[in-house]
Amino acid sequence: MTLTIRVAEEWLHSCSGCEIAILNTGESLLELLEHLDIVHMPVLMDHKLSGQLGEKEQLTVPEADVGIVSGGVANEEHVEILLEMRKKCTTLIALGTCATHGGIPAMANEWPMQQCLTTVFSTPSTDSCSVPDQEVPLFLDRVYATDEKVAVDILIPGCPPDPDTIKHVLTALIQRTEFKLPSKSVCDTCPTVRKGKGETDKVRRFLDNADYRADQPPDTMRCLLEQGLLCMGPVTAAGCARHGAPQCITARVPCRGCFGPVRQKGNQLLDMMNALASNGIDFKSLIDRKSLLRFSGAHGRIRKRRFKVKGIRQR
Amino acid sequence: MAKVINIQPITRIEGHARVAIHLDDNGNVQDTRLHVTSLRGFEKFIEGRPAEEIPRIVNRICGICPWMHHLASTKAVDGCFDVVPPPAGHKLRELCQVMAHINDKILHFFFLAAPDFILSPDCDFSVRNVMGIVKKEPELAARVVKMRQLGQVMLERFAGRALHPVAGVVGGFAKPMLEEERRQLLEDNRTLLDFACYALDYAKNNVFHQYQDIIGSLGTITTGFLGTVNHVGALKLYDGQLRLMSPDGQTTDFPSESYLDYLAEHVEPWSYSKMVYAKCWDQKFCMDLNKPKGIYRANTLARINICDHIATPRAQEALEEFRTHFGRPAQATLLYHWARLIELIYACERSLELLAEDDITAPEIRTPAEPKAGRGIGHVEAPRGTLIHDYETDDNGCIVRANMIVGTTHNIASMNMSVKQAATSLIQNGVYDETILNKVEMAVRAYDP
Fold this sequence. Notes:
The structure holds two protein chains of two kinds.
Chain A: E1 5-11, H1 17-23, H2 27-33, E2 36-40, E3 64-70, E4 73-75, H3 76-88, E5 89-95, H4 97-101, H5 113-120, E6 139-144, E7 154-156, H6 163-175, H7 247-250, H8 268-278, E8 307-309, E9 312-314
Parallel strand pairs in A: 1-2, 1-3, 3-5, 5-7
Antiparallel strand pairs in A: 4-6, 8-9
Chain B: E1 3-7, E2 17-23, E3 29-36, H1 42-45, H2 66-81, H3 87-113, H4 115-118, H5 130-136, H6 138-159, E4 168-169, E5 172-173, H7 179-208, H8 212-217, E6 224-229, E7 241-245, E8 251-254, H9 259-262, E9 263-266, E10 275-278, E11 296-297, H10 300-306, H11 313-326, H12 335-356, E12 374-382, E13 385-393, E14 399-405, H13 412-426, H14 434-445
Parallel strand pairs in B: 6-11
Antiparallel strand pairs in B: 1-2, 2-3, 4-5, 6-7, 7-8, 9-10, 12-13, 13-14
Helix pairs in contact in B: 3-6, 3-12, 5-6, 6-7, 7-12, 10-12, 11-12, 13-14
């Protein structure tokens, strides 16, 4: 590797886990850094959107070959930064499930944004107040994935995304070679024992541990879905497997879909209902079905509940 | 002419915030504000969900301290369902929590904070970062990266995921620890303890000594402190009672279940983050530098101040040395860094202690739970401060109401005050430059928000 690329990174409606995933490339990070000229990345370096002397009216990102954006889009400032990133970066990467599918924060899409704010600012420990609205960015009507607002060139899902995938893509961009993202499902990377169908027709809540032998590796454990636990492996994009099994399976815990749908435009709720049906499991035994979209609620997948307001039914 | 300096965003911190410095016609500081610009609404959108799922949702509040939210939440759900984990369940949770503290502290000190010192506060912004450290001190950088990675891999191998964990479950833990896992973790944790001791020595010799002036003055304010101790006043991170210390050093201990009697959250219209204050002092809330009211701080310096001692030998030794220099309570804001490295040593020692306990490999790790109506309050000490999750469930075990007091929010008021103190003393008659603005940010960075 001899080339260097200019990189700009921003985080929007996010938790910083994607940035930690970048750091989790570990010792490869030091090699990567030799070929990355980072021109903007708030978590690691001091370039300011508002100018180094705090004088700029408009938020500005330097020109870059590659832009990386984590987080969904929930407020006016996110939109402004995302548009600026798109304008200044030749290749734009949406990093992490919030950026690709809305992620956990898009669970808020079930309610009007204002109602979420009202709840947060009226908890029992909060002094009576109105919702902050001065000199803070105002919210949009819902949480969006980045590709609903701008054209995105590369989508790398994951909550968090896999460090090896990040390294693979960045290396390919540096070397100007091809890269390949995982296209299978979590089940395709899962070593647990599948017999085709479980002995149960109901989903049971995860209130007791799965049945497995702790001194044996996961490839001796019966498939968790066949054990009657809700495991979203069949409808979730692969990419999390490390140390020989999907990460949650290593912890002996069922998948909850954090890499989003297998196909970019797939619907984890509909797909999972099908998967349950083909396993002979009654989907009605599942409480909180909307939770199947807990990582992929953007793109209009999670819609607002209908609320009765002053006798009028509203969306 | 009056103007506003907008430092956007504050960089090398974990959260989303900016600082606005308002100058008057003479170019002197009239006011400063730290605007927290993000809010996601977790308290709303976990409503109606099965409580046992919540620890896997709220870990996404913070990608740097997901274990803290994960475990405070798990404890709150234990409370709702009235279930008590077996001893090994608690020990495995605590082990993961203190190991997560280790990674967090290495990350903050070396990747985020140290560039200001190792590369000096007045060097160009383009090199004042971890990439600059890689160039200036490649051996140190390589070791730091390796140690942080080791910490992550240890958690990942044992608990499946280091980031956005899933292994903490209502009633205990999802998998037991095998003897060979214990052996490997012991060995790796010893390596981390050696590094932790080296880190504190390094910082004493190369940072704290050189920057005594800045450390003693920048962003310094006088406040109370909040943290967690056990029944004999020793520092605790996973459990114990809360201890609130007033600025004069008087302490009050209380169980986290009664947090509503002691703490309240103030809201300013210009920040999405609430500002927690000591309601029990009956002074209300005020951020005036000369007569603050209700203001206390959390996070490392607070915990080091409120504890009577630390129950592990090397951390205790470091605490005693710290107190000989700075007394108790120490108020200088940049001492957060020093306190952070003392806690790093404690976290390593505590991991080793837990791993040495016989029953940590016990097969009984989870008590089965039944969904039911109830209330649960779970608390842990997160790197950024005391973290409280408070849930109520319905008969079906689904969340009807949630309240969370998040670590950083305890320090929002103090950060506002430290910013004002720093800006006021550094900017006069309209004269300022990048170095001065970075120093204002250094006052924020110490809190690791």
